[in-house]
Amino acid sequence: LSDQLADEQSRIDQEDLAEDAEMVRRLLKNLVTLSFSQEKLIPAVSGTYIQDPKYQDIIADQNKVKSDFRGVEDSLQAISSRQVAVASAVTKEVSEVNENIARSLSTLLRCNQSFYGGSKNSSASQPMQYAMTSINNLALILAESLDKMQNQMRQNSMRQKGSKNSSSMKKNGSCSNPGKGKPSPKSLKQMQDELNKQMEALKKELEKQGNKPGQGRRKLGEGRQISEQFAKMAAQQEMIRRMMQEYGQEMKQTDAGNGKLAKEIDEIMRQMEQTETDLVNKTISQQTIIRQQQIMTRLLEHEKAEMQRDQDSRRQSQEATDRYQPSPSDLKAYEQLKQQNQDLFRTTPPSLTPYYKSKVTNYFYGLGDF
Question: Which pLDDT score, from 0 to 100, does residue 312 have?
């Protein structure tokens, strides 16, 4: 009964975690959309004369950013109340967004006068830039929080599966595969290869549109889909890096004296973190692609080393022990020696009287074949 109650509680916790993860996904998508909307206004306000009717559109669009963020803010506060670890960071960034959006609107409206008509309001772009940065920071916080939730859900699922297998083992006397679920170089390489293909495809798409990835923070592509792709790939790279970290901790414990292995794993994680930074900044340069190829090469080497360790382990466990198998000639020599000893023991000393000779003979007959 206690096991049933524990399983039911675990199921409820898993459902709550799944609901939180779904809410975070929606928030992350909304924040990416807001970031893109704010980014679009930065060059627009710097390049528009105040007397241009488009200036009024910029004010309206900035008001829309403010209104949309107000709707996201309530959900952010709800998430931070349930995820205490990110509460302070979320509160800080939300305050920064609100403050800078208010500053940008104040600057836009202050210059919205006829005698400023022949000028451009470049001062409003700075608070817009700050607001976008804080929105991006919130997106990163949520992406990290979502990654932790997904890891927790995987661990809970593995724990439940292990509990079921344990019950099955008690009933059937069998056990399940104890190593299932741990990150391996092969699975990490496969996930990294898939991400690399996505990055190369996006780079080609941007180049077709006439954009050159890798030239700092500039507008890349048209539409929110591009920004969403960058955010998704950054989250994927972070997930792979965390799995690599878990694999590295396990290997460092198993092979604690191998400093070269620890250094190699740390270098892979450092390169992955650099890629995350590029993707957050919406940058895919040729240097990024080369770095991804280096990561793949290192993961391939780890996969080969892992296969070699498995083969060595199986070879040691199946190593034969030497057993002495006597040859026919050895057996024949042994039989001859045995017969000689029997004859020797059956030979009676000549000094014995007939009475004692008969006693010795009867004794050997009683023994049978010696």
Answer: 64
Beta bridge partners of 49: 120
Q: Which residues contact 263 (CB under 8 A, 6 or more apart)?
A: none
Q: Vertex 138, ends 134 and 143: CA angle to 5°? A: 145
Given a cut of 50, the residues of the chain with pLDDT beneath it are 1, 168-180, 211, 213-221, 317-320, 348, 369-370
Place of tokens 């930065």: 42
**Residue 192: which of 139, 250, 242 has the closest Cα?**
242
Residue 84: per-residue pLDDT: 76
Quick count: other Cβ atoms within 10 Å of Cβ 41?
A: 24
- Is 175 exposed, middle or buried, given 0-12, 13-18 or 19+ CB atoms closer than 10 A? exposed
pTM score over 0.85: no
pLDDT digits (tens, 9 = 90+) for 99-120: 999 999 999 988 877 666 678 8
pLDDT, tens only, 152-168: 777 766 666 555 555 54
